[in-house]
Amino acid sequence: MNIVYFFVGNSMVINMQVAFSIRTFLAQMTKDDTIYVVTDTPLMYADLPQTVTIPVTQDDIKRWKGKHNFFFRVKIEVLRMIARKDPEKAMIYLDGDTYLYGPLSEIKERLSNGQGLMHKDEGCPGDMKDESLKMWQTYHDRTYGGITITTRHHMWNAGVVAIPGPLVEKVTDLALEVCDGMLDDNSEPFVVEQYSLSVALFELCKDNMVEAKSWIGHYWHYKYYWSRYIAKFFVKAYSLNYTIDEQLEKIRQTDLAWVHKRLLVKRTLAKFLGMIH
Fold first, then answer.
1. Average pLDDT, whole number, for the chain?
2. Does residue 178 surpass a pLDDT of 90?
3. Spacing of C-alpha 20 from chain mean position
4. What is the Rg, in whole angstroms, of the alpha carbon atoms belonging to the chain?
5. How confident is the model at residue 275 (pLDDT cuts 50, 70, 90)?
6. What does the alpha-carbon distance between residue 211 and residue 214 come to, in Å, rounded to a whole number?
7. How far apart are CA 3 and CA 37, in angstroms?
8. What is the distance between the alpha carbons of residues 141 and 267, in angstroms, rounded to a whole number?
9. Residues 6+ away with beta carbon under 8 Å from 192
């Protein structure tokens, strides 16, 4: 399996989130698995086991944004690049604010059975509001990449995108074709990349998709609390000179599902008391 991260910028918070996410996967990976980190700060990840860093430049980003200068199109181009490097291996893309808490073996089994995974099924965009609804009002009943957009095509959260091995090139190629077609129609672009991946994976997996949230957490809605937890993890690890193997063992010994619940309670209490982050 190939596990892919993409991010740019030198934000220490984001780098810590990615570094922690990577370690939750390293703690369960087998020798056949590889992590790809596509970034403009590759030196921070160069010494991690089973990890390949791919430096990107601003020229790369500009090219991948395409003629509409749409930043999130870059994610699809990155996935296409990895798919072409290893077209027979299953692939998982992950946002930095994720962590693996369920058995990775179960995800692999799902993929080997032809299922696609994305973080969460958010429903039909026609039932949403704001950017998603604006997008739907433009795209429904239109055809992109040979696919006519209907109520069957839900929006799935793209913080996690997992593609079966035989489909990695087909899904990423189709997602880019759908994305570019939608951008040509000049709708609200903010969620187009996410919807394009949702449509492509849904179609090519033949409506055989499952939510990844049963195995992978995605804390985009309360990053403040996870960032503090992760910072404490690394401060302790480096203060006590933990090796990478010792760091991974600490993660194996930690019930991350319980951590998630505890941090969510903190966020809920802060919201109730008017101190939301």
1. 93
2. yes
3. 14
4. 19
5. low
6. 7
7. 8
8. 40
9. 70, 72, 73, 135, 179, 182, 183
What mean pLDDT do residues 167-174 have? 98
pLDDT band (50, 70, 90) for residue 189: confident
- Alpha-carbon span 89 to 32, nearest angstrom: 10
What type of residue sits at position 9?
G
Q: Which residues neighbour 72 within 8 Å (Cβ) at sequence distance 6 or greater?
A: 189, 190, 192, 193, 194
Higher pLDDT, 192 or 222: 192
Say which DSSP state 66 is in: T
* Of 107, 58, 75, 108, residue with least CA distance to 5: 75
User: What strands lie across the sheet with 156-163, from one edge to the other?
Assistant: 51-55, 34-39, 2-7, 91-94, 156-163, 116-121, 209-211
Dihedral, CA of residue 76, residue 77, residue 81 and residue 84, to nearest 10: 70
DSSP symbols for 189-245: -TTHHHHHHHHHHHHHTTT-EEEGGGTEEE-GGGHHHHHHHHHHHHHHHHHTT--HH
Helical H segments across the chain, by residue range: 12-26, 58-65, 73-85, 104-112, 130-139, 168-184, 192-204, 223-239, 244-252, 256-272
Q: Enumerate residues 6+ apart whose C-beta is below 8 A from 41.
A: 8, 9, 10, 15
146-153 long-range contacts, CB within 8 A, separation 24+: 147/174, 147/178, 147/199, 147/203, 149/199, 151/124, 151/126, 152/202, 152/207, 153/124, 153/195, 153/198, 153/199, 153/202
Average pLDDT over residues 220-245: 94
